Here is the input.
Amino acid sequence: MKRILILMLALLLVLTGCSAPKTKKDADTGATEKPDPVELSLWTYPVGGWASASTVSAQISAFHKVHPEIRVSVHLLDYTTGDQEIEAAIEQNNAPDLVFEGPERLAANWGARGLMADLSDLWGSGAAGEIYPSVASACCSNDGAHYLYPLCMTTHCMAVNRDLFEAAGAWQYIDEATHTWTTDGFIAAMKALKAYGVEHIGAIYCGGQGGDQGTRALITNLYSGSFTDPAHTRYTFNSPENIRALELLSSLEGITFAPDMTGTDEQNLFCQGELAVSFCWNVASEVTHTMSNPDLDFDIFPMAFPTDDGNCNLQGGIWGFGIFDHQDEQRLEAAKTFIRFMTENDNQYTQAVLSSSFWPVRDVPNIYENDDLMTEYFTFRQYMGDYYQVTPGWANARTAWWNMLKDIGSGKNIADAAADFETKANAAANAK
Here is the structure.
C-alpha cells in the first residue's frame, strides 16, 4: 500500500508539473537552492522626476524588497535619441520588457503595430476604476486593447518672465488669478516688450519633436483652430484659423522661428533670461530648472496659451507602463506584477507619482496639499483639452510638424506649408 501511494504521488507530480517550482540543487551538498529570479528590463523616457537615475533606482529598490523573485534593470532614454534606440532594439529582436511613456508611443505607435501586450486584465482592479475617464479613454486603442497602464499626468503650459513683463508694462495684459490671456492681450504684450527694448522675446523652436506640444498648443489656441477631428481619425490642421495664427507669429517682432533650437534649448535660454517667454513648459520644467539654476534672478510665472475665445485647450501629458510582447508568459506576468506594485497600492502609488513631480491619474487625496508650487500648477488641469496624440500616424505626423515649422522659418509660403503638413500627416494616418 505504501508503494502504491508513492507511485500515485509521483504520477500526480508529473501530471501537474507546471505547479512545482523549478529549483536547482547544489552539486556538492544536494541542498535545494532558490530559483533564479526573472530578469526584466525597464526603459524609461525622461518623464518628470523619472528622468533621474537616483529617483528610478529608489522605486526599483522598493519593488525588489517586496519581489526579490524579479530583478529589474533600468535604462534611461531621452527624447532626442530614445525613439531610435527603441526602434533599433525592435529591429534586433531585443526590445525591453517594460517602457515608461505615453499613449502616443505605447498605443498609437508600437501597440498599433502589434508589438505590445494587451493589459486589459489590469484594468479590472479597483484602482483602475478610479482612473479619470479622459485618461482611461486615451489609454484604450481603437481595437479595444489597453497597451499601457497609466501612472501620472500633467498639463503642459507656457511661462513668462514676470519681472520683465512688469518692467515693460506688459503685465497688464495677463489675468494673474486665472493664469490666462487673450490673443489680443498676447499681441499687445509682445509689442510692449519690443518697445521696451527686448530683442528676443520668444522662439518657435523646431530642431526636433521634443516639446512640440508647446508649439501646437500656441498655434491652435490663438484663433481656435483644431489639430485633428474629434474622433482622432484624421488631421485637420490646414485651416484658415491655423494659417492666420502662423501668419501672426511670423509677423510679430521678437518672435522668431528657430530651425536648430530644441525645446530644451528654448527652456535653457528662457531661464538664462535670454528669452522673455517659454512655449515649452510644465511644472517639472520649473522644478528642474530652479534646482539647476541657483542664480535664477527673476520670477517665473506659468501661463495658459493665449486664445481668442476664452476657451484655452492645453495639451495634456499621460504617462504609464507598457509591455513589449516577447511571447514569454513568465516575463509577461512578472512585468504585470511590477505594474501592479507601482499603481495599485495607495502608498507606493503616491510615492511613484511624487517622484514624477506630476499628478495622479486617479482620484486619491491631494498629495501636494502643502506644496504651493504644485498647487499653483494644479490650476491648469481645468484647461486640459482633447488628448489627440492617439491619432493614427502620430509618429510621422510629429516629424512632419517640426519640418513644417522649419520650412516656414526658411521662408516657405505658410499656406503651402500647412497644406503639405496635413497631406503628409493624413497619408501616415491612412497607411495600412
